Amino acid sequence: MSDELSSVSGEDTQPLPGEEMAVNLTDQDASEVYHAIKLGAIGLLIPSDVRSEVALTPVICELPGSPGWIRGVTTLRGIAAPVFTIDPFLEHMSQKRSGRAVALIGEGDFMVGIELDSLPQRVSLSRKDRLSNTPPLPASIKPFVKESYKNQDGLWLMWDIDGFFSAVAELAKASDINSENI
Amino acid sequence: MNIRTKIILGAALGSLISVGAVAYLIASVSEKAARESLTELSQNSLVSIRNSRQEQVESYFKTIRGQLATYSNNRMIINAAKDFSREFANIGAESEQNLGETVTTVNDYRSLQDYYNGVFSDRFQETNVGEDPNASSYFDRLDERARRLQSLYISDNINPLGQKDLLTRAPGNERYSVFHERYHPFVRSYLLEFGYYDIFIVNNEGDVVYSVFKEIDYATNLISGAFASSGLGDAFRASAPNDIEPDAVQVIDFDEYFPSYNDPAAFFSSPIYDGSQKVGVLVMQAPVDRLNDLMTSNGNWKEVGLGDSGETYIVADDNTLRNDSRFLIEDKANYLEALRVAAEPNLTSINARGTSIGLQSANTKGTKDALLGNAGFDIFPDYRNIRVLSAYTPLDIPGLKWVLMSEIDEEEAFRSVENVRNTILKNTGLIGLGALALIGIGAALLVRSITRPLQTLVGTIGKVTEGDLTARAELTSGDELEDLGNAFDTMLDERVQTMAQAEKDNTALNESVVSLMEATSQLADRDLTVKIPVAEDVTGSVSDALNLMVEETSDVLLQISNISKQVEDSSNLVQSHTNSVKTAAQSEQTIIQNTLRQLETVSTSMQGIAGLVQTINGLAGNVQESTEATAQTVTRNIDGMGQIRETVSETEKRIKRLAERSQEISGIVDIINTLSERTHVLALNASMQAASAGEAGKGFAVVADEVQRLAESSRESTQEISSLVDSIQLETSEAMSTMNVTISRVVEGTDLAGQAGVEMHKAQSDAAELGLAIQKISEESTAQEKANSQLKSQANKVLQSTEATGRAVEEQAVETTKLVDYATKLRAMVQSFKLSA
Question: Which stretches of chain A sit within 8 Å of chain B by CB?
Answer without folding.
Answer: 18, 20, 35, 46, 48-54, 56, 101, 119-120, 122
